[in-house]
């Protein structure tokens, strides 16, 4: 069974069966809204973060809370496992990024450099680089092992809300309140391309597994699937009655999963019928 995990302002995390759409389990324990979830690479654990600055680690098979980390005094907008499973990284509204040992839950590094709240972090496929995006309009790259700043670059005209690495780790995609998606060369920090098409701000971007397509979700209530070879929209998915908060591909690229905001409160599963 393939699971979807969803996080909600109602303080819960839910596991869903991807094939049937049925609810499998509801996890409770957070005192405030849950803002982010991330499966460990082996799928055995799930990390969740909340508005209270708490990270919880859950056992997926039985839903047991196996660890709680008092990580930040302000909301944690994003939490992710490193692809090698060794670390957990979170970004907070207190302008910091924290790196944790995934086994011991001990703090390894606190990264400072952003001047405003950090919306999201992503980790490169080789588990060497963290990318972070912030209200301060910057994108920063950090060394995951040392915590040192590698590069910082700008190009968006407003807050940057979402970031994702390409599967080969050479490109990052960022989405902003300026309604654009930008693609950046990780090595040089140079802007590679700008994708325009959404009418309101971006909330989420994700690459497919071979890096040929990108999916984006925005406050304009739509999801767009982009062909990265020609920078054109393949199709626009609509149906939400509110902004779309998050979007992801399944590993085989056959399915897109999206989650929408409070006025809609729905997960949607989109499949390519071609």
What keyword list fits this structure?
274 residues, mainly beta, four-stranded antiparallel β-sheet, globular
Give a structural overview.
The protein has 274 residues and is mainly β. The protein is built from no helices and 26 strands. It has strands at residues 3-7, 13-17, 23-27, 34-39, 45-50, 54-59, 65-70, 76-81, 87-92, 96-101, 107-112, 118-123, 129-134, 138-143, 149-154, 160-165, 171-176, 180-185, 191-196, 202-207, 213-218, 222-227, 232-238, 244-249, 255-260, 267-271. It is globular, with a radius of gyration of 17 Å. The mean pLDDT is 96.
Write the layout of secondary structure elements.
Blueprint: E1 3-7, E2 13-17, E3 23-27, E4 34-39, E5 45-50, E6 54-59, E7 65-70, E8 76-81, E9 87-92, E10 96-101, E11 107-112, E12 118-123, E13 129-134, E14 138-143, E15 149-154, E16 160-165, E17 171-176, E18 180-185, E19 191-196, E20 202-207, E21 213-218, E22 222-227, E23 232-238, E24 244-249, E25 255-260, E26 267-271
Antiparallel strand pairs: 1-2, 2-3, 4-5, 5-6, 6-7, 8-9, 9-10, 10-11, 12-13, 13-14, 14-15, 16-17, 17-18, 18-19, 20-21, 21-22, 22-23, 24-25, 25-26
